[in-house]
Amino acid sequence: MGEKIVCSGCGVEIQTQNKQEIGYAPPAALEREVVICQRCYRLKHYNEVPDISLSDDDFLRMLNELNTKDALLVNIVDIVDFDGSWLEGLPRFAGNNPVLLLGNKADLLPKSVKKNKVINWMKRRAKEYGLKPVETSLISASSKDSIEEAAALIDSLRRGRDVYVIGTTNVGKSTFINTLIDQFGESETPRITTSTIPGTTLAMINIPLDETAELYDTPGIINPQQAAHFVTPKELKQITPQREIKPKVYQLSAGQTLFLAGLGRVDFHAGEDASFIVYASNEIPLHRTKTEKADQLYADHAGTMLSPPADAETLGGMKMQEWRIPSEKTDIVFAGLGWVTVQGGPVTVRTHAPDGIGVTIRESII
Asked: In the chain, pLDDT over 70 holds for what percent of residues?
């Protein structure tokens, strides 16, 4: 093929020989001004993607090289799924490099939420994960909210160095970079492929910042504990918030159960009456029932009334965990699905989720 050509959408090297391997593009595609691989073409035009042969080990290998660089790292997390989108081992990847922490998708939080309180919460949560960011901010890449402020932070913190944008899949890294390109880049700069499907960016994509430094979009590490990996691409759209989340409040008594579609369940096991506030995609069906009827309800309606997923057999069984919730407002987090804030403790709850979906509790974000 002569000179190396890379896909402007996902960053992999273009090849024209094997349709089953990553980077394939038909020979005619090489004649275009902006070359993208067949996988990115299908993502862009049909929102579908074939299987890829790039493993999480390949992604981790790339990130492990970052601590040898002299650069600014911009870590983007999904503020609606902070814990599910936290990059495991970030302090190790960062080394001595400064980290700017950006909470994306702030437009999905209820408008009543005070941003400064969320930013302070992010700082405390990051510290619990062993990271002290040099700056922390909230943005919305899709609505372009606070993008100029984020760009100014990057420019002041990088001090002439390269910039690496890092994070797990689906946090909006490529959307963020495309927004930067739209506002500050050259008109001919190619756009990066974006999708709700995990693992869109396959290799590092570099964009010049000035004559000596570049900005890199790195591949997203897949967090296998997120609900995204238990549903189809169509169902993923349903459980991924697309607009401002409308909290749903339930006043529950001990002996009552709350279902979050067929992917999450909270049993109020013991304690005085309390409020259970659900923060999740507005498209996720919720259902309240008596705990004594919950197992039978799931057996009868998983995949129908309790859907997604439509095929409950793919879940491989539900795992139960018991939690003692203190008197302070506490979030029960289902990775990639949302969270339930308990107000009015102390209470004891039992959670059920597919074996593999991460369930944790934390200080309430709101």
From this structure: 86
In whole angstroms, give the CA distance from residue 75 to residue 84.
14
Could you count the other beta carbons within 10 Å of the beta carbon of residue 41? 16
- Cβ(349)–Cβ(272) under 8 Å? no
Number of domains in the chain: 3
Domain co-membership, 186 together with 260: no
Residues 89 and 147 in one domain: yes
Spell out the SS3 assignment of 172-210.
CHHHHHHHHHHHHCCCCCCCCCCCCCCCCCCCCEEEECC
Cα 273 to Cα 221: distance, rounded to the nearest angstrom: 40
Beginning with the edge strand found earlier in the chain, give each strand of the sheet holding 286-290 in spatial order.
286-290, 256-260, 264-271, 347-354, 318-325
Q: Are residues 154 and 299 in the same domain?
A: no
Give pLDDT, residue 197: 46
Q: Is residue 228 part of a domain?
A: no
Residues 150 and 122 in one domain: yes
Range of the domain at 19: 1-52
Residue 345 three-state SS: coil
DSSP state of 229: G
User: Do 124 and 268 have their domain in common?
Assistant: no
Helix segments in 96-248, DSSP class H: 115-128, 147-158, 173-184, 233-239
Residue 38's pLDDT is 74
Between CA 349 and CA 226, with CA 105 as vertex, the angle to 5 degrees is 45
> Is residue 325 situated within a structural domain?
yes
Tell whether 33 and 169 lie within a shared domain.
Answer: no
The answer to whether 14 and 7 have CB atoms below 8 angstroms apart is yes
Question: Are the beta carbons of 330 and 345 closer than 8 angstroms?
Answer: yes
31 found inside a domain: yes
Q: What is the CATH number of the domain that holds 76?
A: 3.40.50.300
Instruction: Answer yes or no: do 274 and 345 share one domain.
Output: yes
74 neighbors 98 (Cβ within 8 angstroms): no
Q: Give the pLDDT confidence of 324-343 residue by residue, as tens digits.
A: 999 999 999 999 999 999 99
Q: Are strands 135-138 and 99-104 parallel, antiparallel or unpaired?
A: parallel
How do residues 264-318 score in pLDDT, each as one tens digit? 999 999 999 999 999 999 999 999 999 999 999 999 999 999 999 988 777 767 8
